[in-house]
Amino acid sequence: MDLAEQNILFIARAPIHGGTENVVLQLCETFKPLVNKIIVCAGKGFDKGALKEMHIKFYEIPDLADKSPKTVLDISFKLRQIVKSENITVIHTHHRMAAFYVTLLGLYKKCVFINTSHNTFYDKIKFTRFSYNHAHLIACGEKVKENLTNEYGLKDVTVIHNAVKPFSGPVVLEPSLKKWHDLGYYLIGNVGRLTEQKGIEYFIRSIPMVVNRHPKTKFFIVGSGELEDDLKKLSIEQGISEYIEWMGYRKDVQNLMSQFDLVVLSSLWEGLPLTPIEAFSVGTPVVATNVDGTPEIVKDDYNGFLVRPKDDKGLAKKVVYALDINAKEKMSTAILQTYKKEFSIKVLQQRYISFYRNIN
């Protein structure tokens, strides 16, 4: 495919500061100098400011997850209009429902159709096959590819790992982190939305066992979400609220991670999570649950540590061990090598450009 002649439409769901939004923005930056035009179509909440800085037009659509008849008709009408008015030649979807609309409306007959899958699913087999059957398929990790092939019988899936940009620095010292660091405390961060998926409950339940071994440890929860009140209540019930600082949603996660001794990812499921990649980009080790694509990034006792999901005791044990051996210093070389070789933005850009160019 000759990139210079293409008008690309990226379609995504409204994010909650999610990894999918990050990938779409990375692809916009990657292809902006190479193609004729890029358009982004997504729900309310997408980072329109970043698109404006790149001079990329944005169309807002209703939430793709809303399957009411009115919404289906509204989205169908708008997508047809966008494809026609913007003379779209490539449609790249980032959500199962987005792919469904491309297939339902027959837009794949007029445009090159690409889909990137960001998560694993185990439901709606016929629906998923219908949605993806005409697409050139990309998976963000090997486990996501296995899911597409084993669960849904889809073929010719290419793996392109998620990535993050290197931290440009300089490090801006966070006052609360500096305060506790200067007092000789270990600093442990958990970065993610406060939802069931991220398993913050088990992180909180692990804290009493960690402070029993290392009393001078502070825990920082970076993120917001619907479970925030419940999780704060749990920390009080566990008697460890004094050890936790709630930092809310932050855009400077790499800056914060560079100041942590350890990052914990306590998720119950993932596609290919960005949190450990962000941590590795600044040389910080990760204790993560062994779910889905996470072990494609975190290798136990090499650049971090893996534990079973929902295992607060196992999580505490690994955190204690990581602090005992000074994992941040011991694993620094392996951590940075992992990031540069497989999860840097340059690698992602090279692989996506090659994928596009090889489409006939």
Total strands: 13
Mean pLDDT: 95
* Termini separation: 6 Å
Percent strand equals: 15-25%
The residue ranges in which pLDDT falls below 50 over 5 or more consecutive positions are none
CATH class of the largest domain: Alpha Beta
- How many helices? 15
CATH architecture group name of the largest domain? 3-Layer(aba) Sandwich
Order of helices and strands: EHEHEHEHEHEHEHEHEHEHEHEEHHHH
Q: What's the assembly state of these chains? A: single chain
How would you describe this protein?
The chain is of the alpha/beta class and 360 residues long. It folds into two domains: 3-163 and 344-357, Rossmann fold (3-Layer(aba) Sandwich); 175-342, Glycogen Phosphorylase B (Rossmann fold), CATH 3.40.50. The protein is built from 15 helices and 13 strands. It has helices spanning 19-31, 48-53, 69-85, 96-104, 125-132, 142-152, 175-182, 200-213, 228-237, 253-257, 275-281, 312-324, 327-330, 332-342, 345-357, and strands at residues 7-11, 37-42, 57-60, 90-93, 112-117, 136-139, 157-159, 186-191, 217-222, 244-246, 262-265, 286-289, 304-307. The strands form two sheets. It has a seven-stranded parallel β-sheet with strand order 3-2-1-4-5-6-7, sandwiched between helices. β1 (7-11), α1 (19-31) and β2 (37-42) form a beta-alpha-beta unit. α4 (96-104) crosses α5 (125-132) and α8 crosses α12 (312-324). The longest helix is centred in the first third of the chain and has 17 residues, at 69-85. It is elongated, with a radius of gyration of 21 Å. The mean pLDDT is 95.
